[in-house]
Design a protein that fits this description.
single chain; 177 residues; 1 helix
């Protein structure tokens, strides 16, 4: 009999759970329906107020557009007058700049000629300096070669003298007993 308690108790509890679950799920569905109806009413009220606001905004936008058109016309006229004045000023500045450019062009050509002369003088001075440095280097190389040749000759003479029998001392006499 006790074995049946292990089956009956869970089945009874499952039945109670299903009963309570059905009741609660029905309540949740009712609340959701009520909430959805409330949200729909709010959306309708909001849409009506939005239409009224949009109408007022359209009227204001039309009025502002007319004001802007008048302002734009006034600005355009002022801009055209300013443009004409600026163009006259620019043409005057161009004429003045052309005159200055002619004067500066002659100055530039004179300075360019001086620069070319100075560059030629600099190149000649560099060539002269290079030739002198080349001569100095050649003389130093010749001096070094002469010193090496002198050292070689001295060593050859020293070697020959060392090998020569004339430079050697005669053998010492044997000691007298």
């Amino acid at each position: 009999m006790r074995k049946w308690f292990y089956v009956i108790c869970p089945v009874v509890m499952l039945g109670v759970f299903i009963f309570i679950y059905e009741i609660k799920s029905q309540e949740v569905e009712d609340r959701e329906r009520a909430k959805a109806a409330e949200i729909a009413k709010e959306k309708e009220a909001e849409a009506a107020s939005r239409r009224i606001i949009e109408e007022k905004a359209r009227e204001d936008a039309d009025k502002r557009a007319a004001d802007r058109a008048a302002e734009a016309k006034a600005k355009e006229d002022a801009k055209e007058k300013k443009y004409a004045d600026e163009m006259q000023k620019i043409s005057d500045d161009i004429a003045k700049a052309d005159a200055e450019a002619a004067v500066l062009t002659t100055k530039v050509s004179e300075l360019q000629e001086k620069l070319d002369d100075l560059q030629k003088q600099k190149e000649q001075a560099n060539r002269d300096t290079f030739d002198i440095a080349k001569q100095v280097e050649a003389s130093e190389v010749a001096k070094g070669s002469a010193d090496l040749e002198n050292q070689r000759m001295v060593e050859m003479i020293a070697d020959r003298a060392a090998k020569s029998s004339l430079t050697k001392l005669p053998p010492a006499a044997p000691p007298a007993d």
